[in-house]
Design a protein that fits this description.
By secondary structure, the chain is α/β, with parallel strands linked by helices. The protein contains 9 helices and 8 strands. Strands 1, 2, 3, 4, 5, 6, 7 and 8 form an 8-stranded mixed β-sheet that branches. The chain is globular. The two termini are 26 Å apart. S-adenosylmethionine binds next to helix 1 and helix 2.
């Protein structure tokens, strides 16, 4: 792994990734179905939170799910076995040193990984040759700059800003969602198509308040309290005020909005985008 991973590998983060994946399954995975017998690489599978959805939704495709973290892979294997999946194999590997021959896969899927890499375009360039001509590449990333909420609060924006800054200092980019189109185009993919997928939560949607606002977004921000204070980005009082302000968006009258970006591009297909020259 070429940069420290800002969210870490704690049991709380494992639970957060699972909550996130369950809450967002339809929003993120709608439109992603892989045909029978196709070979799919999932790069950066983590604890398998997306793997379960992917493999269940395309039960006759074959998935190879890789991650650099042996600890996360052990959890992913456990959850895959628990879910009774028989179409996934897990392997420890680094995206920058993958043990696969060119043209090994029909499709590649990457979710919430590029945001943690200091060289996301280089990662895309490593992955692209693994696709067969005409194969598809799907990538999903968030963008913390897309957070909108009511009541609005400078303290809440500042707490989110701590996470963005810590991720930047560890080489990542928490604002990468907006860059998917240029990243894919510059890495030589054909015809990238990017769809914003917005989460809109008000208190008439209690499952989303709990699953997204509280357990996914607030949990992610709250988890950087100590590192943010240690880095001198904030103090405990100001940070806690920010988290408290985010919590107000989860109570009566509160609203929280966040946009994920889902992109699909092709390897070796003649593109429809005139600005794309292919590779
Ligand atoms: C936020 S987690 C996302 C996991 C999963 N895709 C999901 O959506 O739940 C990012 C994962 O990328 C992995 N990762 C980071 N850099 C990597 C690299 N160079 N090669 C393989 N995996 C990497 C981390 O170990 C971590 O498990």
């Amino acid at each position: 792994m070429n940069t420290p991973y800002v969210h870490g590998y704690s049991p709380c983060e494992t639970q957060r990734l699972q909550d996130q994946a369950q809450t967002l399954e339809e929003l993120l995975h709608a439109g992603t179905l892989y045909p029978a017998n196709s070979q799919v690489l999932e790069a950066g599978c983590g604890v398998g939170a997306q793997t379960i959805a992917l493999a269940r939704r395309s039960p006759r495709a074959r998935f190879v799910s890789i991650d650099v973290s042996a600890q996360s892979l052990a959890e992913a294997r456990r959850r895959s076995d628990e879910a009774g999946l028989d179409n996934v194999s897990f392997q420890q590997a680094d995206i920058f040193a993958l043990p696969f021959a060119p043209c090994s896969f029909d499709h590649i899927f990457v979710c919430f990984v590029l945001e943690h890499l200091s060289r996301p375009e280089a990662a895309l360039r490593r992955l692209k040759p693994l696709l067969k001509p005409g194969g598809t590449f799907t990538v999903i990333e968030g963008d913390h700059g897309s957070s909108l909420f009511h009541p609005d609060s400078d303290e809440a924006h500042a707490a989110i800003g701590c996470l963005v800054e810590l991720q930047r200092r560890s080489g990542g980019n928490a604002l990468i969602g907006r860059q998917l189109y240029p990243l894919l185009r510059d890495a030589g993919f054909d015809a990238p198509q990017v769809e914003p997928r917005m989460v809109y939560v008000d208190t008439s949607r209690p499952l989303w308040v709990d699953g997204f606002t509280r357990k996914t977004f607030m949990a992610m921000v709250a988890a950087v309290r100590e590192p943010a204070i240690a880095a001198g980005l904030t103090d405990g009082v100001r940070f806690d005020a920010g988290v408290h302000a985010l919590d107000r968006t989860a109570h009566a009258g509160g609203v929280f909005c966040y946009t994920f970006f889902k992109a699909m591009a092709w390897a070796g297909r003649v593109g429809t985008d005139p600005s794309v020259t292919g590779s």
